[in-house]
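Worked example 3. Consider a protein that binds zinc ion.
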Amino acid sequence: MSDPLQYFQSHETDYLKKLKHLVAIPSVSFPGFEQKVVGECGNEVKKLFTEVGLENIQTFPGGHPERPYIYGEWLKAPGRPTVLMYGHYDVQPPGNLDKWQSPPFELTEKNGRLFARGSADDKGGLIANLAAIDSILKSVGSLPVNVKILAEGEEECGSGGLDNFVAKNKSLIQADVIIITDADNYDEQTAGLTVSLRGLISMSVEVQALKQPVHSGLLGGPLPDSAMALSKILATLVDDSGEISIPEIREMVVPLSADDRQELSSLPFDEHKFRDESGILPETKLRCSAGEILEHLWFKPSFSINCFQASSQAQAGNVVVASAWARIGLRTVPNIDNEKAKQLLQEHIERQTAFGLKAKVSNVSVGTWWKTKTDHPAFKQMEAALAKGWGRASVKIGCGGSIPFVQTFTDALGGAPALLIGVCDPKTFAHSENESMSIEVWRKSVRSLIHFLSSF
Ligand SMILES: [Zn+2]
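Given these inputs, the predicted complex is written out as structure tokens:
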């Protein structure tokens, strides 16, 4: 058999079995979860690299020794360009187990979708990369292009070791084009080529007034309430419409260009579909008009309280809580200076007082936004491959999420173009309960990758 597409079609279930196997390893990279499991998943990825026939397979330490970077290559096309393909095998925590309709670490098929944590983000993406290379190698016997492939084990917890890995292994990962298979598609029928990402500044904020919670009847009144104080402090971060209130941060945001606006308005958009896919309740109003949704998602900063903890529902007695803790995040966009914005945010929080209480900021992390030019021929080449793989033209999209290392890669590779594609679609609910991947979207993504790699 010499047609990679046919080979893929007849071996699709084998590749999905590999996905099932990877998904069954709960490789949650967050501190607090057993890191050894992440390392075990890394070992399985290494085995998959071997099965594909990749060579020079190596393991590099991540920010934690149990979260290794796995590298493999196929470099038997001398004189041809080199493509670096990226995916990650670590996952987010499963979240609220009661909300899962099937076990989070058991790949479960329902209505053409595969449900499990990491099914799409990004074990599905990683397997898509491997399936494309494997289908060409096993059918044609060789690739028309050199391929390097990298699997990360700590993307979801901030890629702590990536800068170090890239700095130390610049020549090993040197390539002409980067494919990052960890992004979204516009919808289930339309492939997306992601050309911008938001950045993310996150930090923990804590107010503590007491040594321990006390009886709110016996002692409440004279004591300041930490949860109320933290609420008041956090409330100063946004205006009445929910926009970040710090003027210096707002002023750094570049208004959309006429071209960007044109691109946005050319995309088909259905408000009802958006409401449905976002899970917003029927009675809840959006913060903007339907025509502004994409701009808000891709090109405006947004502020979230990711977690607010003062006690728990189970422990909610008549008490004055001792302390309150929150994790907050600000999504940033061009041209916010992330370091400056981080400082502004932190200073603003530390300046506030409520009932004489102040908040302490800790665990600050900063990931930068990214926006690429699309004039390199690789973009056209990928657009052609996506059109073939999906049977219709792709669209250039932004992404409200963050992949801070895209810039690290492009810098290390001397400005090589980064092509961001993926196996997610708006129904995926990555990072949320009941994450799923559409089998058809995955199939189309693998076909596109086969077309892309074959087009050199
Ligand atoms: Zn991901």
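Take a moment to read the result before moving on. The radius of gyration is 23 Å. Residues 88, 121-122, 155, 182 surround zinc ion (CB under 6 Å).
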